[in-house]
Amino acid sequence: MTEPAVPLSELRGVRRTFPKASGGELLVLDGIDLRLESGEIVCLLGRSGSGKSTILRILAGLLPPTDGEVFFEGKPLHGPAVGISLVFQSFALFPWLTVLGNVELGLEAQGLPNAEIRRRALEAIDLIGLDGFESAYPKELSGGMRQRVGFARALVVHPRLMLMDEAFSALDVLTAENLRADFLALWTQRKLPIDTVLLVTHNIEEAVLMGDRIVLLSTHPGRISDTIEVPLARPRDRFDPAFRGLVDLVYSRMTQTPIRPSAVPIAEALPPASTSMLAGLLETVAAPPFEGQADLPVLGERFQIEGHEFLSLADAARRLGFALLEAGDIQLTPEGMRFVGCGLDERKRLFAEQLLRHVPLASHILTVLETRPGKRAPRTRFQVELEDHLSPEDARTTLNAVTSWGRFAEIFAYDDQDEAFSLDDPG
Ligand SMILES: Nc1ncnc2c1ncn2[C@@H]1O[C@H](COP(=O)(O)OP(=O)(O)OP(=O)(O)O)[C@@H](O)[C@H]1O
Ligand SMILES: [Mg+2]
Asked: How many angstroms does the Cα of residue 202 sit away from the middle of ligand 2?
């Protein structure tokens, strides 16, 4: 593929902040340099809240960066770009319009003659496998077919750049796999009227299946932490050792920079993970065939949860000192092995020890409670404090995690009704 001197799309030194409700600014993206070349599929992988959708909106010209520059086709972009289409997780299709009507809508703004609009809409419908469904209404279609209408609506304008925001993640496994395979076949045969694709995803396997290049985004703030080339020919075989090797590599790079350490230790975001899921994870790794060490992707397949939830779970085990994550493997620490081997009371004691040793927020809550006259503090006291460093969502997730862990460990109590922490006897 020829590589032009000028990339199709480019971000240079992009920074983006959002105003916080409590005042001040939340830094979401920092120092983002990204070049998208003609002819490539780039996958952007990152945890929830790392700023992936924000990057897409900036690339499309739908949101200006706070600092830095955005280029499309070599020119600075200062508003919605012509020549860029977006595909979302699910589409708001107009229920009163047929498939054809919904796809034609994508072209309405372009002022083409009606016959040309019709011709191109039928062509896009044909291409994406909706032939025969032109006059069906959205309610008559399955989720997968509706998503195909969304793709057709994005393709009909013949965009040079297609931005996909988790375009496959709302579909069931089989439907998603079919749509990916169809899309990749068209891409490989160069039948798609697009030059470049940027696909945002949580799913490591999907990134290795689809991308020529995988860009990893760290969290708090979102920064590009790594770029991994995928030099595999298409169609790719998930069971090919080279494919597995790349999945392992991405896993290990992602777990190396799990959540960016905060300058303020109590404000380090915590991954959502219930104590029962954590116990399940540690027990599974301890048991045969793993005996204390497991390949993360292999282990992930045993858990009926989404890839990013599984990573959060593994990350929680690491944060609590129950496991090490290295080179795409999880390995239980002596404390992790001890946890699995003991009964509930001992587990709670060990959990409390690990929590107070490794999670500064937990000891912080305890200290605050101990120094308060009534040994009580409202949840908002900590929510507000965390929001100085984290987004409101991340602050909530982090507080939820520490609350459920602290309750299990019985280091403090939490009253759901009053939304307050206390040192009341948790029993
Ligand atoms: N308009 C906005 N106002 C305030 N905060 C925002 C706004 N848009 C995004 N954010 C915040 O920016 C951060 C990044 O959001 P973004 O949606 O880009 O993340 P993401 O990586 O796409 O997450 P997910 O994987 O959950 O879709 C989040 O903390 C979010 O709350
Ligand atoms: Mg998003």
From this structure: 9
